[in-house]
Amino acid sequence: MRQAGHVTDTPTEPAPARESLASLLGGRKGAIDASLPPVAFVAGWLATGSSIGWGALTAIVVSVAVGAFRLVRGDKARAVVVSLAAVVAAALIALHTGRAEDFFLIQLLSNVASALLWAASIVVRWPLLGVVVGFALGQKTRWRKDPALLKAYSRASWIWVFLQYTLRVLVYGSLWWAGEVVALGVARTVLSWPLVAVTVAVSGWVLYRTLPENHPGLRHPRPR
């Protein structure tokens, strides 16, 4: 029996476990699928004695097959069309210039644009990592009203600028300039989902390291 005047300690609920950034962002399947057409291009180019036409055709056929598989699995048609259009555009550029390495030119330029866009978003205090995660969580822009989250997303977004996009620009750019087609295909594979996984892990660590220990987490922004 409880004695009069004796106050029992109320058990405190444990803090909710913080979700990993990888579980929120996902994207590994898409990154793997995107690396298949470039590998197919290099394989077709090598197998036919450095024929850009056969390499381009092989890449497009593989892209169509991957797109069909995505549609069967229930992926959005818009994403499939965009992916296929990017491969066709890359193939047309290589066919037009007559340089097999130009198949990777769109990928190089898109990473340059991504690095600049992500850096600019941090400068104007709209870090894109926060935009992406906020959209995934259905928060719209509520996360920006939390100074701790805004600071954490800004720091973590710099990881994406340097570890992912700038690194790709340096590697792709040097290999493209040297005309190393096979090395570009290998780099396109290595710097796809493996690099994305590392970037997500490191940026997630920075994100949660920056947040105060008593912060309720990404799903619960605290207004100023």
TrEMBL record:
This protein's source sits in the domain of life called Bacteria
- Which InterPro entries does this entry report, sorted A to Z? UCP010219
* Keyword Chloroplast assigned: no
Q: Does the keyword Lipid biosynthesis apply?
A: no
Any single Pfam family the record assigns to this protein:
DUF3159
For this UniProt record, the keywords arranged alphabetically read as follows:
Membrane, Transmembrane, Transmembrane helix
Q: Which residues cross the membrane?
A: 52-72, 79-96, 116-137, 158-178, 190-208
- Name of the protein in its database record: DUF3159 domain-containing protein
